[in-house]
Specification:
6 helices; about 45% helix; alpha+beta; two-stranded antiparallel sheet
Length: about 100
């Protein structure tokens, strides 16, 4: 994910700015504000724009733990984000956050 410089991020990862746009860091409310969720550290996590939108476009967004499991399952299967992003970020499928860095 990136926060400040779309162009630098897209160049560094050799993807188009339009692809990188979907990876912009957003604040994801685990319990949505519309459902009474509050702006506290316990209720907010970092999520890319695409993941944030996908979760909340569902008729009934899944609970945080259930959604985490869904995302992890789809990443392992190579079915998360578009194919070009999965190729560019192949290290995600192998359990790595970035080249040379183990996932946490």
């Amino acid at each position: 994910m990136w926060q400040d410089d779309l162009v630098a991020f897209s160049r560094a990862h050799k993807i188009k700015p339009s692809q990188a746009q979907r990876l912009q860091c957003t604040a994801e409310h685990l319990d949505a504000r519309q459902d009474g969720g509050v702006d506290t550290a316990q209720n907010i996590v970092a999520a890319c724009w695409s993941c944030n939108q996908r979760r909340h476009k569902r008729p009934k967004p899944p609970a945080p733990g259930a959604y985490l499991s869904l995302v992890q399952q789809r990443v392992r299967a190579g079915r998360w984000h578009c194919a070009a992003l999965l190729t560019a970020f192949g290290m995600l499928r192998s359990g790595r956050d970035s080249p040379g860095q183990a996932a946490t």
